Amino acid sequence: MGMAENEGKMQGWLHLIRYNRIGLQYSRKRYFILEDDCLNSFKSIPTSHTEEPVRRAIIDSCIRVVDNGRGSHRRKLFFIFTIYNTANHNDQLKLGATSSEEAARWIHALQDAAVKTVDLVSCSKRKYQPFRLSVSKRTEKRSIDWTSTSSVHVEAMTSDVIAPSPWEIFGCQNGLRLFKEATDRDSNVRRWDDHPAIMAVGVINGTPEAVFRTVMAVDASRTEWDFCFHKGSVVEQLDGHTDIVHVQLYKHCLPWAMKRRDLLVRRYWRREDDGTYVILYHSVFHKKCQRQNGFVRAYVKSGGYVIIPMNRGKKCVVRNMLSVDWRCWKSYLRKAYARSITICMVGTVAALREMYKTKEECSIDIGVLESEEEIKTEVGCKRIQNETNEAMPGYISGTSSISGLNDIADEFFDVPAPSEDEEGWPSNANSDSCYVNSGQPKFSSAANFVKRLQDLAVPKKGYIDLQSVSWGDSLSCSYGTTLPRDANLKMPCSCAEADPTSFLIRGKTYLHDQKKIKAKGTLMQLVGADWIKSSKREDDLAGRSNGIVTNYAAEGRSDFFFVINIQVPGTTTCSLALYYMVKMPLKETPLLERFIDGDDAFRDSRFKLIPYISKGSWIVRQSVGRKSCLVGQALQMNYFRGKNYLELGIDLGSSTVAKGVVGLVLGYLNNLVIEMAFVIQGDTAEELPEILVGTCRLNHLDAAKAVSTDAISSSIS
């Protein structure tokens, strides 16, 4: 059953979820009501206002909600999310909805409820009340309109970055507009790459969720619209947002005399706050799915779908993007073959459109089968159980930290870029030789998978190679100086300040017209940066000796530092630390002063990041997006307050969605120019217009050139 929204409260049926050693188990179906600052659970729909709930949870500023993606049990598909208490990570509750839209509404409602209590009660002042608390007397209700407009919903509709489109149109076919990825060359030069990225765009008379379910299916139902698809399967379910998929293609979609092709891809999906679905994939190697006789395995550089709602969700715009090396051995046929096959593949959007048109006119079932759509229980459930630690009795997980929720034994790594004259894999390719020849040890956790993406990046060609000797000689081993600064934006693996006018922030009248304006400047200036690696997560970098912050304090200077420490999980944890110095006294910027001196709950509700990939592959641009995000509502943040600094530690490993994005970004890191802006969100008229805290531009970062913390420590000693 779905969820109802009436009389200022959320209510509906959800499933209590738990995991055991075998896999996912949903324990019981319960009716939940979210009202005021309480989430109440009932065995059945309450018949009166005075009926007591079975369980009750307090929703306040300490509460966070994590989207765990899809999971299946007994051929039933669930969209799972976790509610947890930042004051005690053992205090958590997993719930499952039967549709992604229903799960998204609950997630948004719970997030809005937590944000609205920030100014009312703080984590430190709140009496701890766990989710498994027995029922207590009901308190008098005060109505809150959960359906009112919130920043979560409004701001998801547009971009917060001013940037040109990465696509240019080259034709129209079967009612679809066809685009190719724009290049940096002059617009008058019409040259096709060897393996061009091509996009088809069309409008479908179906809801975004229905289309999402259709394109995610890899069973027989896909043959009703995908005329290139012959057979497919889910090889392994990594987590609720990521899986490994094998697909065999029909021969008729290939040129004459060309061998049949198959694909093995890592597929990642997410749902945006405005209802947009993003599905991205690229080729990987997996020891459970070796090269098959009679097939040549094509190399998917990047591909995916973007399903954008329109007409209030009754229709959607579908973008199908693909860049593939089809492994054609005849050089004079490569470009023509690659282009024609790729156009044929993305052209399946037209068939998808016609299927939904037929459904609308004839009112027939489109035939999406449950078995494959529900993630192949036999390969999925055994892997999903590692998303969390073993469940404790009851409904409370024993996990003490978010990073431990996804300890998946990965058995795949990214495919190295193919050579120009190969058609198939080397004849001696096998799982053992691939591991040994690549020089990689056997990994056993999801965190190590992120490290593997660093070391085995997909797009090897075109990487800028720096001499390690000269790099080491040019670095200063002290905190705040390990990442060189280059104002000319030409030095690889360097940083600089980005142009603030490229970013949009809330204007003076935003509360009335929701309009944003160009930023004119920043409150702080970038004075240093670190790109370091360690065997563990590194916190409180600003407080370490012989660093830029402590050196300023030792000199008796009154400058205040604002440090942002972005922590990338892995076997070797990388940290990107940005050191900003305040340009003016804190008392002249009340909102910033309140943020620095406030509690963690307030900080979590106000700190925003605006990301932008100004140079790089379209798949990374699509994955990262260009929309501001309240970081503390999506990721675990740790704050460290010193005499002359505030450090914000952003743990990218605290979310499965973030891990998926990080995985894609790290694979292309050397080819990217990443720009970011940081904002303290203004929620009242007195706090508007917003002002950027600071900006940064990262040029072609290289994980191999991160400086070890041991090297810094030895230089200090």
Automatic annotation (TrEMBL):
It is found in: Endoplasmic reticulum. Pfam families: EDR2_C, PH, START. Transmembrane segments: none annotated. One of its GO terms (cellular component) is endoplasmic reticulum. The keyword Endoplasmic reticulum applies. Residues 146-325 form the START domain. Keywords: Endoplasmic reticulum. Residues 7-115 form the PH domain. The keyword Repressor does not apply. SUPFAM superfamilies: Bet v1-like (SSF55961), PH domain-like (SSF50729). This is Protein ENHANCED DISEASE RESISTANCE 2-like isoform X2. It comes from Salvia divinorum (Maria pastora). The lineage of its organism: Eukaryota, Viridiplantae, Streptophyta, Embryophyta, Tracheophyta.
